[in-house]
Request: fold
Amino acid sequence: MQTGPVLGIESSCDDTAVAVLDADGRVLAEQVLSQEREHAPFGGVVPEIAARAHLAYLPDLARRVMERAGVAFAALGGVAASAGPGLIGGLIVGSGVAKGIALAHRLPYVAVNHLEAHALTARLPGLVPGGAPFPYLLLLISGGHCQCVAVHGVGRYRRLGGTVDDAAGEAFDKVAKLLGLPWPGGPVLERLAASGDPRRYDFPRPMLGRPGCDFSFSGLKTAVAREVARHPAGPLDGQVAADIAASFQRAVAEVLADRAGHAMDMLGMEADLLVVAGGVAANATIRAALNHAAAQRGYRLAAAPPRLCTDNAVMVAWAGIERLRLGLTDALDFAPRPRWPLDAPDMRPEKRARA
Ligand code: KG4
Ligand code: ZN
Reply:
């Protein structure tokens, strides 16, 4: 079992992030450098630009966060970095820096599955009143992921359902673009929706009521595009845009609550906690709908504060701590992976190396 603090590195998409947590999971220092400015002119994340930005920011960021934590590299108990899934350029940069530090100071290295980091965030000490013991249900809703997962333990995940087309955050971003809003669209769309009428447009609720807990958002997005096209070219009337935003957001919230409800029914009495993670979990309307669905089934809803819902390195360091506590480490030749599902066989503790 590791004793020293753990350094976490996140670079799987467009956030360069570093965190240092003590062995109990208390945050000693952390920082997220968003690359929003670099990608905004392109209306989305450009992988090559992301990789170069990680390379430019990460080494110095790691040094500064370690300094602020007051921890010497040699005093670390381990180094953890997101090794997938995600954009391969950024993953190579983050993993390379982590392995370099581990090699230079003879530290245990953990190749963290980014989805596992989201999944285990709820177990950070003090985050969920009463803690988040296994098993629990995870609803992961971000720009790249949309899935319901039964979390039975570290490395033990059962995927109950996922999106057949777009992720929820992707749908927010695409609809925001249709409304002429800047990228990333989710937060801006939520602010616009606050002054809109969610009942004005009766957009479709894809998958609502269907068995299982798969998701689909492309039909909803197309319906919004069709509505936008009915209006004259040029900027939409402000109230129309707000009403479309509110009606779209309502539809997504209802679908997510319905799908998560089915997932809770699939898990039944096995669990009593629904954890929502990913950038979209910051949305208040969606949280309220999920809270209602959870309460109806005797489940508690837990959501991390927004800065821990979106990509960050605290969750990566924490996943590293959870693995190190089980004696799980990775070899320095572990190759980062653009695709790495949570239920991949080598996620399971018995399939990975032990320290
Ligand atoms: O988890 P995240 O930071 O990055 C990954 O995709 O991994 O999630 C970003 C996504 C974006 O699609 C963004 O538009 C969406 O989360 N998002 C929101 C809100 N805040 C962020 N969507 C709806 N409402 C929000 N308040
Ligand atoms: Zn993420």
The first helix runs from residue 36 to 39.
